[in-house]
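Assemble and predict.
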Amino acid sequence: MSSYVDQFLVRVNYIWRLIATGISFVFFGLGGAVASLTLFSVLYLLPVNRQKRSIYAQYMVSLLFRSFIGFMNLCGLLTYEINGRELLKEKGQLVIANHPTLLDVVFLISLIPRANCIVKEQLWRNPLVLGPVSAAGYIKNNSRQLMAQCDDSLKRQDSLIIFPGGTRDHGERPLVFLRGAANVALFSAHDITPVVIRCEPQTLGKGRAWYKIPKTPPHFVINILPDIAIQPFLVTGSRQSKMSRELTAYIEGFYEKNIEF
Amino acid sequence: MHTRESILAYLKSTMSELFEVAQDDVVLEARLYEDLDIDSIDAVDLIVKLKELTDKKIQPYKFRNVRTVGDVVEAVYELANEQEEKKQEPVDS
């Protein structure tokens, strides 16, 4: 008898989560649009320079993302644990992470009040998010001065989030990372703060429809690990093309080792 | 004097040394980014090496539309021969 009740409850919970997931997506899109038109527009009216404005905007995005995660958690859509939060307390950190789900950047920005990131150029043509992406001073992914802009961002003490795997992981092993993150670290001679994200069961992955939700709510584990020092990879007289290959191979190995934890 | 063949041979040895690609993969049709995993940062190092070969200042913009190994060979060939012609000018006149 009780197993029927259990099954019924599981079913009810599933349907609830399906509806709430839909609501979350609408909430995210609508929230972005409303914030874009109100909060972020007001930023342009304030008598502050561009840098101050970007700091305010980044802080607002961080708060909004934190509320969004809180909302999803409250709806029973996900649970999470964050380990090593104190390792993200510095300003101007170069943060890298693996990228299993759509929510990774939301989690990371929610943890970093002054976060810059590299964003698809198309978003500057999307009126729903134009407000925040331009006010926050995010970097366009097709920029010709990408390296210099990343370097500037770190020098301004914005933290910079990069997913070296590019767009979301497809779950293939071994991991293959692009060299962009390594190139930024070498160019700026900046240590790297590695974050390892795990989501069980898998949800919101690349190429997966939003309504394909797992049977039980996903649990996110976000592990912030001690910095990878850049100094050993900066070899005098060596070429950047060589150093970035070595550093990228090291980062791939690092993630292979830590991703299962 | 640089021929297309000698430029390709130079690219084979240089690119395998710089970028850990197999010499056999450096063929005229190979696309730099998609097939050989050579990005814009790598291109800077490659251009330095091409400068050593041609002994001539290289304008990076000349390489902006370069997509394949064949394109690089053509660009270097043109550049090298431009130089040869200029050297011969005083002799001709």
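DSSP finds eight helices and seven strands in chain A.
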